[in-house]
Design the sequence.
């Protein structure tokens, strides 16, 4: 390889060295990017582990507070997934909403309770009906809760709104 390089003209040597240097720079930039990604992943993982450790250190306090909160809940007022959908239908009709949908329920369970979650969407509604619906959900706290809310207007009629809520309910495990 050395003999091949030394037998070349000066301009060819310079050109070969330039190609090798460009290749090395490209390779080094790729290595640098991959190293940077790995360092960010390590930092993110370390932060996540620190947060988890803090929560674990507070486990006894959290369990005590959860137990106290559960003692104050009335099991008869807690809603399972079917009752959640039924209750939202009733609240929507009472509020004056006509064009709405309630998605299927998603459930996450723990040893003490189950949390059911649905997406409620209302189309072409007026602001008064949406406020009434929101207030009726707020009155049912802590058995019904809002996690997410999106509001938009109808382009053809700005006085009509489209709203989407993620509504959750707590069911006490028996």
Sequence:
């Amino acid at each position: 390889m050395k003999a091949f390089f030394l037998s070349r003209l000066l301009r060819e040597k310079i050109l070969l060295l330039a190609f090798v240097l460009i290749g090395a720079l490209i390779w080094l930039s790729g290595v640098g990017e991959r190293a940077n990604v790995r360092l960010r992943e390590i930092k993110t993982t370390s932060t996540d582990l620190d947060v988890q450790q803090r929560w674990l250190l507070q486990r006894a306090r959290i369990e005590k507070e959860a137990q106290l909160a559960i003692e104050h809940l009335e099991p008869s007022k807690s809603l399972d997934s079917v009752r959640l959908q039924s209750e939202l239908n009733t609240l929507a009709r009472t509020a004056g909403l006509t064009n709405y949908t309630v998605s299927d329920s998603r459930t996450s369970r723990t040893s003490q309770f189950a949390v059911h979650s649905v997406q409620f969407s209302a189309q072409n509604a007026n602001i008064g009906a949406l406020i009434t619906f929101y207030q009726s959900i707020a009155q049912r706290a802590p058995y019904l809760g809002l996690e997410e809310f999106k509001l938009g207007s109808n382009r053809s009629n700005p006085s009509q709104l489209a709203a989407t809520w993620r509504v959750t309910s707590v069911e006490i495990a028996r």
In short: The chain has five helices and five strands. The radius of gyration is 30 Å.
